Amino acid sequence: MAEAAFGAQLRECRQAVGLSLRQLATRVGYDHSYLSQVERGQRPGSAELARLCDRELGTGTELTSTFERRRRSMPADPLEGTQPADSAEAFRPGDALEAAWHGLVTAFGQLETIAALRDFRSVPPVGLLPELITDLRVLQTRAPAQSAVEAAQLSVLTAQTLTALGQASAAKRWWQAARTAADRSADSSVRSAVCAQQVISGLAERRPLTQLLEAAEEGLALVDAARGGCLAQAHAAQALVLAELGLQEQAHRALQELIGVAAELPSASTSYGPLSDWAPYEVHGAEGRVCARLGYGAAACVLLARALELCPEEWLGERARLQMALAECLVVDGEVAAGIALALRVLVELPDEWHTYYLYDDGARVLSAVRDRQPGLAAIRDLQELLGRKAYLDRRSVGTGSSARR
Length: 406
What we know:
Elements: H1 2-16, H2 21-28, H3 32-39, H4 47-57, H5 62-72, H6 95-104, H7 115-119, H8 125-140, H9 148-164, H10 168-185, H11 188-204, H12 209-222, H13 228-244, H14 248-262, H15 280-294, H16 297-310, H17 316-332, H18 336-349, H19 357-373, H20 379-388, H21 391-394
Helix pairs in contact: 1-5, 4-5, 6-8, 8-9, 9-10, 9-11, 10-11, 11-12, 11-13, 12-13, 13-14, 13-15, 14-15, 15-16, 15-17, 16-17, 17-18, 17-19, 18-19, 18-20, 19-20
């Protein structure tokens, strides 16, 4: 089996340099359980993973070449499209993604296990997109109308992944597919969560705020109070939009409602997917962002610090965004030098594959806050230059990334 051959070679190369699975996973920015599945031939891996492992293991292009030979040996593979998986063009709506979308809007099915939903916090967007395409195509082969919820989850995650890679325009149709699937599910919690996620993503995409507020209120009206996590998402979306609009009093009330809902959430969540119950770190992160928009810098810092404590260390992308939000909170609280230093450190130290559109939008908010408070600060230029490189589009080396830890 081609997957097993690539995985066996990866394991051999890793062991040859004396690295454990966890050590390699940390260096390349993937979850160790995912790498374990690749080494055992249970997951195919990706060209991006092969490239990163070549870099960290000092194997030149050995692993990348093996992966490319495996891909070429699989005739008529509909998932690969016409561009290499690690090409910037692969992030655009190519043949595979186009076909998946057209199939999804007319048929839904049932998956016993949706791999991408389990991995989406541990795998960088560039590696996650091929997995999503795989799951989407499998979903279309199942019995129609039996898993609209899974279709909605995968569509939301596809939309978010495309936006993370700087393809917000391509993401629009996937939000449409998510809404269609959620409506077909007849589950008010799912429909509400799709609305909330689209609103939260729309804030980063700088969509018209009046439209986002309407969508947030729609989601809040739909939510089933028995599903606390979805209720938290709905309140968070509304509070964030109100704060962005500068409606201080209304946003403050929405924040209080969010805090009240969050108090009823379980201490941990074992579910997967963007439409599942929110984990406590996600709720605290949303509360902190609302507080920052309202000018409650000290409270925001406390909430974001708590969110970072609860967010798993291996979820590099989630932690980077929380740190960037914390940087904004520090600036709002008057700690301008500390805030901009944190933002710069995140952009420099984070492995390149985790740089996303969402992270850079968070960084732009830090930059705006610093300019408002200390427009003459020398470090503003440094932050502006890092954000201007848009590593999520071309994936040039913006910082030390994992290669600096060799």
